[in-house]
Amino acid sequence: MPSNLRRITGGVNAAHGFSSATTACGIKRTGPLRSDLSLVASDTPAAAAGVFTTNLVKAAPVLLSRRHLENGKASAVVLNSGNANACTGEPGMRAAEVMANAAALALDVPVDEVLICSTGRIGVQLPLPKILPGIETAAWSLQATPAAATNAAKSIMTSDSVPKQSAYEVSVGKQRFRIGGMAKGAGMISPNMATMLCVITTDAAVSPAFLKKSLGEVVGKTFNCITVDGDCSTNDTVIVLANASSDVAIKSAVDKKAFQDALHSVCADLSRAIVADGEGTSRVIELTVKGARSASDAHLIARAIANSQLVKCAWAGGDPNWGRILDAAGYAGAPFDPDKVEITYDGLKAAEKGMGCQDAKGESRLRKIAAKKEFSVVVDLHGGKGEARLLTTDLTEDYVRLNLTEFSL
Amino acid sequence: MPSNLRRITGGVNAAHGFSSATTACGIKRTGPLRSDLSLVASDTPAAAAGVFTTNLVKAAPVLLSRRHLENGKASAVVLNSGNANACTGEPGMRAAEVMANAAALALDVPVDEVLICSTGRIGVQLPLPKILPGIETAAWSLQATPAAATNAAKSIMTSDSVPKQSAYEVSVGKQRFRIGGMAKGAGMISPNMATMLCVITTDAAVSPAFLKKSLGEVVGKTFNCITVDGDCSTNDTVIVLANASSDVAIKSAVDKKAFQDALHSVCADLSRAIVADGEGTSRVIELTVKGARSASDAHLIARAIANSQLVKCAWAGGDPNWGRILDAAGYAGAPFDPDKVEITYDGLKAAEKGMGCQDAKGESRLRKIAAKKEFSVVVDLHGGKGEARLLTTDLTEDYVRLNLTEFSL
User: Which is catalytic among the residues A119, A150, A158, A195?
Assistant: First the structure.
């Protein structure tokens, strides 16, 4: 971590001039009434950028937020859990617009400065009569406290087991700015985003163009490099708001580097938290594929390995099964020479030249590594300079049990 | 089924002039001594063809059998379970050659008329001192009986729970020929083959060229249209031997059609048996994607759906979750209009125009369908004439449990 970055506690309210509030509208269909709507607001219109799901099937709030971001600014984000407002057609689109209107009226901001994020069950219309009073209530109860930020991070949880927040204070010369955020996501996590939502706020003054460019680059290296189950959702959204409250203007190359480092740190923290909270998972694996002909080949192979049911089951069993890894690499669709492949677990060679290379003692050491909560796997194809890195998980019986039905969301 | 086809009992010995034998060599590392080597032999050199894995990582027996099939004929197939002889480098290639040599000597046939199939754990050298006497023993005990064929079908099982055989008698004018076969496979099953082996024998007289063409076409419609877990193995092999014992020469267009129908029936039976025996699976789903821009688009989308962990988990839970199906279609990489999609379960609409279309009563009927052992799902994109069909399964906790480690194979 660069020395001008300091980790601080907090989330969306860590930066100055942001506040949040949550309410329980009863959107989640079962169980006790839980907080399911949150509002994040900036005291002043903020520069804003977003990255959205690449799924052809895009939820209404994704379409609306993308449109509202065309002006490069935003004042508030409304987030609901329990219902994704995806595959809901024209009525769904109208519902997202009505939500934005309600927030705009309550906060007295233009409607195209309101962004909407939804997560939860697909294909069910939003219960607007429950949601609209909730937005009104939230707008009246905005608070700039860490507790309010944590409540917002909890409010967007669906199958998540813990709230996910990260924040940093950044020194730029003699000045300081802050950046922080929250995210949710545990299943349907895949490269190119997932059933994940993320809102990041900063009090730095950043141009919309630089904000958009920076977010795209950072998401490519963080949220787009994680996979739990290979499913890419209809609702994935990462939003960043920069409201200039700190008076730190990001203009020089040094300042730009500092801002991007800080944005990267927040996104890296939150994406790692998502993988670590992967539904039913028991291990986090840092998978690196190197020596490919190109970076895109390396990505193809890394994704085939990280999304292979058999590889993931072996990891769940603590089995350092390099054969399944090599098999998955072989059907990825990118060329390499199987007889040159080297596979290591935490630096210990499991295979070289495409063959196993450990005696019983070495295999026992490999099994100890594969039984850990976290370990690294490096697949070196020895065929070029292409490299890719993914954070991924195992596939457990618990994952299946949790996903047998969505009726509980 | 065409009227000139009659299903009969039997497998690789159903056709005249074929025999088989099995032995227990102790290749499987754990448990009681089980039959793990089998030999299928033709009384006379047979026309032969094969289809092999598309995985870049190909097991030694695949490379050897492909080479030995260049002459278009074969007299015997040696199959072992418990060890895939994959990722075993030069020593593995030599081991496959030594196995072929041993069988050629014992049967007094040219070595390039012997094909080898291996299945089991990847990355472990074959125990040749155990296997060679086994081949010798098997060559001495060849029998042309149905019982011997069933024993061979059992001998190649790894995680399979039942032996898989199919056979037909085919009327061509006043003559008759027979065709039969056996297969193994339950995990690592995917389009473009899997950890599956299949040997088919027929006493028709077929030219090597027509045999190769027919096998390629039939495999494309049967074994390449099934998926259990989306993993494509290093060892997948389908071999067909035609020894002309029946004196029925396949030459006219009518005879060729009859032969292809029969070959298709055997392959369709065996591929369906593989899906039905999918590791830990509880349901078989016949998935059709239609209305795509092209057949290849339809295939891309069908595979994304059939290999989606979340879709498969929902099926395991008896949840007719059309939202997850639409989501998976959306990230398949083939264009379509989400607002036109119609999804049906056994003919009952779950979604139309990209949205749910059932009330509580209809949803309850959908749930009853999704709780069955077998049902069909049709995804109509209403955007063209491209169509694809896959047989697939659900993803259960048992699948994960069975694949936590391979040490038990």
Answer: A195
pLDDT in tens, A318-345: 999 998 899 899 989 899 999 999 999 9
Q: Which residues pair with A286 in a beta bridge?
A: A376, A391
Please give the residue range of the domain that contains residue A15: 5-276
Tokens of A325: 């890894």
Q: Is B279 left (phi over 0), alpha (psi -120 to 50) or beta?
A: beta
In angstroms, the CA A347 to CA A354 distance is 16
Q: What is the pLDDT of residues B219-258, one digit of tens each?
A: 988 888 887 766 667 888 999 999 999 989 999 999 999 9
Separation of first and last alpha carbons in chain A:
37
Considering the domain architecture, whether residues B336 and B232 belong to the same structural domain is answered as: no
Are A180 and A322 contained in the same domain?
Answer: no
pLDDT tens readout for residues B390-400: 989 998 888 78
> Are residues A215 and A104 located together in one domain of the fold?
yes
Pair A189, A258 in one domain:
yes
In a domain, B399, yes or no: no
The two structure tokens encoding residue A404: 């047998």
- Show residues of chain A in contact with B310, CB under 8 Å: 187-188, 229, 231, 403
What is the ipTM metric for this complex? 0.78
User: Tell me, what CATH number does A199's domain have?
Assistant: 3.60.70.12
What gap in Å lies between CA A231 and CA B329, rounded to an integer? 10
Q: Are B299 and B226 in contact (CB under 8 A)?
A: no
Q: Are residues B241 and B329 in the same domain?
A: no
Flag whether residue A9 sits within 8 Å of chain B, measured between CB atoms. no
Residue B41 in tokens: 């032999």
- Which residues partner with B146 through β-bridges? none
Question: Which of the listed residues B276, B308, B326 is the one where a domain comes to its end?
Answer: B276
For residue B117, give the DSSP letter: E
Which parts of A202-278 fold into alpha helices (H)? 208-221, 253-276
Structural tokens at position A77: 């984000």
For chain A, the domain total comes to 2
Amino acid identity of A399? Y
A·B CB contacts under 8 A? 202
Query: Is some CB atom of chain A closer than 8 A to the CB atom of B93?
Result: no
Give the number of other CB atoms < 10 A from CB of residue B251.
Answer: 12
Q: Considering only CA atoms, which of B224, B199, B195, B240 is closest in space to residue B84?
A: B195
**DSSP string spanning A335-358?**
---GGG-EEEETTEEEEETTEE--
Catalytic residues of B: 195
Partners of B122 on chain A (C-beta within 8 Å) are: 323-324, 326-327
A190 and A244 housed in the same domain: yes
Taking a contact as any Cβ pair under 8 Å apart, which residues of chain B between 126 and 165 contact chain A? none
- One domain, residues A298 and A257: no
| Nearest CB to B403 within list A314, A329, A406 | A314
| Residue B146 within any structural domain of the chain | yes
Tell me the DSSP string of B120-170: EESS----HHHHHHHHHHHHHT-B-SHHHHHHHHHHT-SS-SS-EEEEEEE
Chain A segment 54-83 residues within 8 A of B by beta carbon are 54-58
Q: What CATH number is given to the structural domain containing B377?
A: 3.10.20.340
